[in-house]
Design brief:
The chain has 9 helices and 2 strands, in the order ααββααααααα. It is mainly alpha-helical. It has one domain. It has a two-stranded antiparallel sheet. A hairpin with a 6-residue loop joins strand 1 and strand 2. Helix 1 crosses helix 9 and helix 2 crosses helix 9.
Length: about 270
């Protein structure tokens, strides 16, 4: 029986009539790029173990950084209280009963002045508190990236978006207080990572709020456990005459940064 023998893999295939050779298919198009699943498995205990380990390895920058930030905030708070108290004393009126010699103090005017002063001065004090929190977040991220130093706690880059995002988060929390106190806790819980998205990815204020909501929602079980463990750590630190906060805050901050990095598929330094 006769017939054609199919060409082997090394045989040259003659071109079709007309001399036209169809183009060979190219490689498949590349898919979207981005971080894949994290190679580091996550657990809350691993986050706190990492936080404790990195805090011990970087005692100097963390203790000095947190101490300076907290002392600065405490000084501002003391000045704020003195100013409000001074307004109360200045605008209060004192009268003496000429018959009995009894002294009467009318604090109505002083109370009004103190209230107005407290509301006005509360704005810069609150903004300063936002900045302190952001600087601690900055330190946590830098620690996970292996580039922590004292100067990181006083870096002023991206503070504008941080303040704007903090104000948005604060207004949302206030709305939760007005609607229901539980709502305020829920809002605060879901927006707790917005500063990480601003500082790590330079997200815009509103985008960072939405990113935090999405991130917490995707990893709800882990974040709930992290939130409760962090609250317990800070409470224990506060009970130790407040000195324990110099340990609790850094460990919690590093644990949160570790959580943000690992659950987003990013690597952290060993």
């Amino acid at each position: 029986m006769s017939g054609s023998i199919p060409p082997g893999p090394d045989d040259e295939v003659p071109p079709p009539p007309g001399g036209f050779t169809p183009p060979q298919p190219g490689p498949p198009p590349a898919g979207p790029t981005g971080p894949g699943p994290s190679a580091t498995p996550y657990s809350v205990s691993d986050a706190f173990n990492y936080g404790w380990k990195k805090f011990q390895e970087n005692l100097g920058p963390w203790i000095l950084g947190v101490l300076i930030l907290f002392l600065g905030l405490a000084v501002v708070q003391v000045v704020y209280n003195l100013v409000v108290g001074g307004l109360l004393d200045t605008f209060s009126t004192t009268t003496v009963d000429p018959r009995t010699g009894d002294v009467f103090i009318d604090e109505t005017g002083g109370l009004a002045a103190a209230l107005v002063g407290a509301l006005v001065l509360a704005v810069p004090v609150t903004i300063l508190g936002m900045i302190v929190q952001a600087q601690i977040v900055r330190g946590g991220l830098a620690t996970c990236e292996g580039r922590i130093e004292l100067g990181r706690f006083f870096d002023t880059s991206l503070l504008g978006p941080i303040v704007v995002a903090s104000i948005i988060a604060g207004l949302m929390t206030l709305a939760g207080v007005i609607a229901c106190y539980v709502g305020a806790v829920v809002v605060a819980f879901f927006v707790q990572f917005f500063a990480y998205f601003v500082l790590d990815r330079e997200a815009r204020p509103w985008e960072s709020i939405k990113a935090s909501f999405s991130f917490v929602n995707q990893h709800l079980a882990n974040i709930i456990v992290l939130f409760l463990a962090s609250a317990l750590a800070v409470l224990i630190g506060a009970l130790l005459c407040g000195v324990g906060l110099l340990v609790a805050y850094p460990v919690v901050a590093i644990a949160h940064a570790y959580t943000y990095k690992v659950l987003n598929g990013e690597e952290v330094v060993a």
